[in-house]
Write a structure and sequence with these properties.
disordered C terminus; six-stranded mixed sheet
Length: 677
């Protein structure tokens, strides 16, 4: 162990100052002492983990403060070291990084999921101040994924899911492509071990054949470049395993039917050379229509720049070719971490972490009061999904989450433009305000002084910032509304003066049988405006513990004296005991779900490619909408899927269930408490 630490420190000394190396040495020594006697699940000394994390970060050329924090990143959580002691011994900067990574004590939260969500929330917001926090966490996650085989199977799958949902996309948004690829491959290994092994064996079996082919392609490019007096490096590679798996799923094809498994990367000196090389490649081989992307003219949100083209190469093989400068390649591999490399050598074109889109969006979310669980969903939907680029009529580029609407665009331009948007144009043609925008469209918003936001807009928009502004307007301008996150409550008409208690009891029963809007659930928070019902003012929305409503449930609101608006399932047995339900009930609906038929289904199916896409296609066939959907591995040779669906009518839902039952690979369909086989 000591030999390995000394080797590591000797490597640092080639680049860092004596003072910087001394800081890292002290941190390593302290961590080794504090973790003494602790073991990993593998049986190895625990100190192996912080050492591996530090080595990963040094491979990324991070600074000495980050490396010191990497060695100490588990000490606040797993040892007796306090924040005060940490700050006194290693300084404020190291202490801040370590605390940013440290998990919140699960005892302080209601459950483990809440703790994990709050941990991620804390880290991401801390990242706004110092992005090195999330880089340490990513390195920590990578080493844990590399050693995940020592954990129980259920822990392997849950960790792999989190990695695929949050940490791999986060690495991608920060531009660290090699880490994103490895995290995805490792997630695939534990989520779908048979598929992973199949792809691994297939790629290995084609290694010699692939090598000969790629050498032939690289040679042709190098010779053609020489004629043009261009100095280039040609790198050859096979696509990483998860990328191949994604192509199989997207195209519903077997492994043998996926042809573009190979890639070529050309590195050159200047941006001008990139475009010369693009023309050169297209002269050598026929380009495939629709497969060219210019990320140099329009960089990704993580500052990634490259030209991508797919050509029909030798022997009719589809081959993707990427063309970029050496500096672009450095940014593509290390992303925001390259900032510290550039800073050390005083590079003229430093990547400033504060300029990244994800940082700016996090700042916006930080200004919106969102609970931890809801925040995690916003992160997944808004920050970790793909983006689109659209243009204003003046040619300014606007980046938005994929599937954003013209309403999102309007509020991005200015709050008042959003408030008074009455129509929109895309490339000169009128489009609905709630229609999804497409990449590179020119968007124009038409405003009207009499136009204003509607509750329905909340169900269409994609960004948390837009949703917050619509809520604020509705809360301020409609005294009969209270919108608290995902619940919209409406003040009822004033009850008749002649109402009697006996009538109230009868009406209470009628309320239970009445068709009310369908709703789903989010956690309670303080409302942003006051609403008065009877003698009650400034009500807050709470979810009843007796029935715990969730997304897709039919619900009813009851104004409880002194406790605010209680949201119950409409079939809750406790409602029959409330004598004044009729007078104190509220019409409630979900902010983000249209008041149509919304139900949850669970399916059990045999392994088959494209199952998710087939189900999504069937929902669209009946003019429905998939609110959420997820397919996981189940026991045996089964897949288990959970879906929340919104349909225009109950009859459409019955038709969908009937057709699902006819799918040969689907073994079981469960709808609510009714089972169909």
């Amino acid at each position: 162990m000591h030999t390995r630490i000394e080797t590591f420190l000797e490597d640092l000394a080639k680049t860092l100052t004596e003072q910087e190396v001394a800081l890292v040495r002290r941190a390593a020594s302290k961590a080794e002492i504090l973790h003494q006697g602790q073991k990993r699940a593998s049986g190895e000394p625990y100190f192996i983990h912080p050492l591996e994390v530090a080595e990963i970060l040094w491979d990324m050329q991070m600074d000495s403060v980050t490396l010191a924090a990497a060695f100490l990143h588990d000490t606040l959580e797993d040892t007796s070291l306090s924040r005060t002691e940490l700050r006194e011994q290693f300084g404020k900067e190291v202490e801040s990084l370590v605390f940013g990574v440290t998990k919140i004590d699960i005892v302080k939260t209601k459950n483990k999921n809440a703790a994990e969500a709050e941990t991620i929330r804390k880290m991401l917001f801390a990242m706004v101040k110092d992005i090195r926090i999330i880089l340490i966490k990513l390195a920590d996650k990578l080493h844990n994924m590399r050693t995940l085989q020592h954990k129980p199977v259920d822990k392997q799958k849950s960790t792999a899911h989190d990695t695929l949902d949050i940490f791999a996309p986060l690495a991608a948004r920060l531009g660290i492509s090699w880490m994103k690829d490895e995290l995805e491959d490792l997630s695939l290994k534990f989520l779908h071990p048979e598929v992973y092994q199949q792809i691994k064996e297939y790629v290995a079996s084609k290694k010699n054949e692939r090598s000969d082919y790629l050498v032939r392609v690289a040679s042709a490019i190098e010779q053609a470049s020489l004629v043009e007096s261009l100095v280039v490096e040609v790198e050859t590679r096979a696509k990483h395993f998860y990328s191949i798996y994604s192509k199989m799923k997207e195209r519903n094809k077997s492994l043998d039917e996926i042809y573009d498994l190979l890639g070529i990367r050309i590195l050159c000196d200047t941006m001008h050379d990139c475009y010369i090389l693009l023309g050169l490649v297209h002269r050598l081989w026929m380009p495939i229509e629709g497969r060219f992307k210019d990320y140099i003219a329009m960089p990704k949100a993580n500052r990634y720049q490259s030209l991508h083209t797919t050509v029909m190469c030798y022997d009719g093989r589809l081959t993707e070719i990427q063309i970029r400068t050496r500096q672009m390649d450095e940014t593509a591999e290390f992303g925001v971490a390259a900032h510290w490399v550039y800073k050390r050598v005083q590079h003229k074109e430093q990547i400033q972490p504060a300029d990244l889109t994800i940082i700016n969006r996090l700042r916006d979310l930080n200004n919106v009061k969102i609970g931890s669980g809801d925040f995690l969903e916003e992160i997944k939907k808004e920050l970790l999904r793909d983006s689109i680029y659209v243009f204003t009529p003046k040619g300014n580029v606007v980046q938005l989450p994929k599937d954003s609407t013209a309403i999102d665009f309007a509020y991005h331009i200015h709050t008042e433009v959003g408030h008074h948007a009455s129509a929109a144009k895309a490339d000169g043609a009128i489009i609905p305000l709630k229609a999804s925008l497409k990449n590179t469209q020119v968007i124009e918003i038409i405003t009207n002084a009499h136009a204003h936001p509607h509750v329905d807009w909340l169900r269409a928009v994609k960004t948390g910032r837009t949703r917050q502004k619509i809520r604020a307007w509705l809360n301020h301008h409609d005294e009969n509304l209270i919108i608290d996150r995902n619940i919209v409550a409406r003040k009822p008409p004033a009850p008749s003066i002649t109402s009697k208690k006996s009538d109230a009891t009868t009406n209470s029963q009628n309320i239970l049988g009445k068709d009310l809007p369908i709703v789903g659930a989010e956690k309670p928070t303080l409302p942003r405006t006051g609403i008065k019902v009877g003698d009650e003012r400034n009500l807050m929305i709470r979810f009843a513990n007796c029935c715990e409503p969730v997304v897709g449930d039919d619900i009813i609101g009851y104004v409880s004296r002194g406790r605010g608006i209680m949201i119950h399932r409409r079939n809750c047995s406790n409602l029959g005991n409330i004598s004044d339900l009729a007078e104190r009930s509220l019409e409630v609906e979900w902010e983000s779900i249209s008041p149509r038929i919304t139900k949850q289904i669970k399916i059990k199916a045999f392994h088959s490619g494209g199952l998710f896409g087939d189900i999504e296609g069937l929902v669209k066939k009946y003019k429905g909408h998939m609110i959420s959907g997820k397919i996981d591995e189940a026991q045996g040779d089964y897949l288990e899927g959970n879906f929340s669906l919104e349909m225009p009518r109950a009859t459409d839902f019955k038709k969908l269930i009937k057709e699902l039952r006819s799918f040969k690979n689907i073994h079981q369909v469960v709808e609510g408490e009714h089972e169909h086989e």
